[in-house]
Specification:
Elements: E1 2-6, H1 15-25, E2 29-32, H2 49-54, H3 74-82, E3 89-95, H4 102-115, E4 120-124, H5 130-135, H6 143-159, E5 165-166, E6 171-172, E7 189-192, H7 196-205, E8 208-211, H8 216-227, E9 236-241, H9 248-256, E10 261-264, H10 280-289
Parallel strand pairs: 1-2, 1-10, 2-3, 3-4, 4-7, 7-8, 8-9, 9-10
Antiparallel strand pairs: 5-6
Helix pairs in contact: 1-10, 3-4, 4-6, 6-7, 7-8
Length: about 300
Amino acid sequence: MKVGLNIVGVRPEAIVDYAQAAEELGFESLWSGEHVALPKHDGWWASHPGTAMFGDKFTEEMVGFTPDSPFLEPLVALSHLAAVTSTIRLGVGVYMLALRNPVHAARAIASVDVLSGGRLDLAVGLGWCEQEYTNTGSEWRTRGRRTEEAIACLRVLFEQDTPEHHGEFYDFGPIGFGPKPVQRPRLPIHVGGHSRAAVERAARVADGWYGSTDLTHVDLVREAVEAAGRGDDPFEFSIITMEGPVDEKRAGQFAARGVERVVVTPWPAAHAGSVGIAGLADVEQCAEAAGLGSSS
């Protein structure tokens, strides 16, 4: 089982310490998510997926961040961490691709992969807050179709010698584009999300799925991959847990269902960007619980 570390909770000035500690402790990857332009008003969190899962029991405190939380731009942050690490993989989960022009996004994504020596994983998602789209001049209604077409644009830009694309939302080329990502056979693009549309999107166009610990979705994605005729293609299942340390028994339960990577969050009750150096002890506890660095 690959074990990653979610660093969204870490204060910006401490991320280097966490990245280097995680690499030394044996974590396989670091993961950083994003929010771009959350609104500031009462009820800003009302459309969070937790409200559908838990109903009235879901509270603002359970969101894990506020509109004022210091979300670093994930590709910028991971590029910074690439310079101070050497082996640990660097993941974005999730990246709201529909808020960006895919040509600009591709340039940033490829740059991080090149500068890190081919260590980037990209998990793309739509987000849940309509006002983030409004606040960035992006259309909410077409976000799913635009995301899927944008993923196709990334593939073209990364894999064609002279990229061009002429689609419903994006039109470019032929153009020059370089440097390309250095990973082979290609930079892995995962799709996150739990809706039926997200599951089917992952099955059609992604190299993997990035989601929660509700393992029924793993089964749904696997069925969708088979239905899409991709049952023999490499496809990786990654989950992110907000429950603190994950021990080897729990990791084994995930593995038995086909999960290949679990991303742990050591601070389930902390707001994003609120954890300082003292939280390194929690990272060490997560590593010990997962058996990282042990001979077992």
